[in-house]
Amino acid sequence: MSRDCETQTIVISGHRADEDVLACIVACLQGGGLVAFPTDTVYGLAAHALLPEAIEALYAAKGRPEHNPLPVLIPDASDLASIISEVPAIAQELAEQHWPGPLTMVLPRSDSIPDIVTAGLPSIGVRVPDHKLARQILAACPFPVAVTSANTSGQAVTTTVEEVLQQLAGRTELVVDAGPCPGGVPSTVIDLTQQPPQILRQGPLTIDI
Prior knowledge:
6 helices; alpha/beta; DHBP synthase; ten-stranded mixed β-sheet
């Protein structure tokens, strides 16, 4: 299913948004809109994680199959408890070592997260990005934010606003331009619900398990 909307671009310098810009971003997400913004790895496409219609819009914008679960980004490791049902010791250790950073941990999800976010799975991917603006946006949102790479499924990930607009103009309401992403490679993903833990995606971070 395709999606059509008017795309607005907001340019930010210094990797920090003022209160008016933050309010605009939060309002867009609260209204069920999509927002693309830079992270430490690649540009992300974000939606209000507790609004099923917003998550449906995200899947449609990317052309992403709904059986492919979405991760959630949080501003700080202390926010884990609002997303997952339990924090195992290994998750605490990895968070202390690698967050903020390019590590996504798959953990048992909280019942507050809709099934559409996790494709019905009992687990969810969670990450704290090492990017000041991204964390500022996430901290300003009084709700969890599902964020996946800002590209259409099967196409290259995006690290600049120009690349985001080439793929998603007309599919996302807002694009936040704060310059290119410093990383360029999607995060490493580790599934901590399995024993032993399993690396689901190799990224910029090497984890010894």
